[in-house]
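Sequence in, structure out.
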Amino acid sequence: MRAILLCLAVLEVSSVSAAQERPQWNLMAELRIGVLEGASALTPVSGIILDAAGARVFFTQPQDGAIKVFDARTGVYVRTIGRRGSGPGEFQFVGRMGRKHDTLYVVEPRLSRVALFNSTGEHIRTERIDIQAAGRERLFGSPAALGPGSVMWVEAQASTDRTGISGPITVPIAIAARDGRGIRRVADRRATPSTAVTNGSGISIFRQPFVFDDVRTYAPDGSALVVITQPEEEPHRFVVTRISASGDTVFSRTFRYRPARLPSSVRDSITTVFTKAFGSGSTGTRAARQNVRIPEFLPPVSTVFMSDDDNTWIQREKAGLAVTQWMVLDNRGNWIATLNGAANVTLLAARGNTVWGTTVTADGLPIVIRYRLSR
């Protein structure tokens, strides 16, 4: 499927080393949100979205099963949406958050349902979605995002479960109608299964460190999907592909890059963590050496998001680094700017000259930072 996508779009190869030729954007922090206690205290934030008017900003709180709402201009706490539970407006698992006009929605993929709220955070309804199998591929899955009209994005799994897999598996991404019918596969992403190791105290299940699984993101309004892949035959390149909600490939761009070595301090830290997890003394050391595959280089992409301006923001390597580079592509895949930011801050949303990111302070306090963007 990946090869088909590349054939449908004009393919352009750029060198990431040419970043100095791009306009340099800069960020200046102008507001911090986050306190130790009280209703406005935050747990780790996984998603940020603005309402249509830009008056309120919403933060997903997976740990609490809730969404915190703040005034986007002043940072003053407004309200909390939902709590952990199964009732109306409650969440078992807070997944992706999106916006359809004045309606905010939250996807709960594990329960195949979507909760809808109005612009003030009042619960409208919760829709349960049954994804129907279709075609020879027999795809099943759960909702990932809502697109324009009745379109819905689905992240699927093949109907035949495979176990004991040592290498990456393919996770299909599809579009379907809101009633779960008419599912059609439009992209694939590669993911690495967890590794299971038997030790003296039971079974340890973990993900291999710094594996480059294909990353993806959806536009805040669900109008497009961006998938970033790395061709196995070309390890020093990554491919950015944008697909519209109609299933058409808008662009596919290939970027060459110079691999960044995994810092020795990070390598040593990983080894220590896994050695302790597998047992004490030589037992843990031997199990870590046999089962943990520490790569020589960092993955070329750490995360990606799409802004309200229809741009794609791509964060490059960050582990063990003080500063990370962001690439910004426009809606045709043109590389329009680069900027440097603190590696411990993950940017999650942008509109105009305002950018929102999150981090955890040295004291363990989750905060959200609003930045002013200068171009």
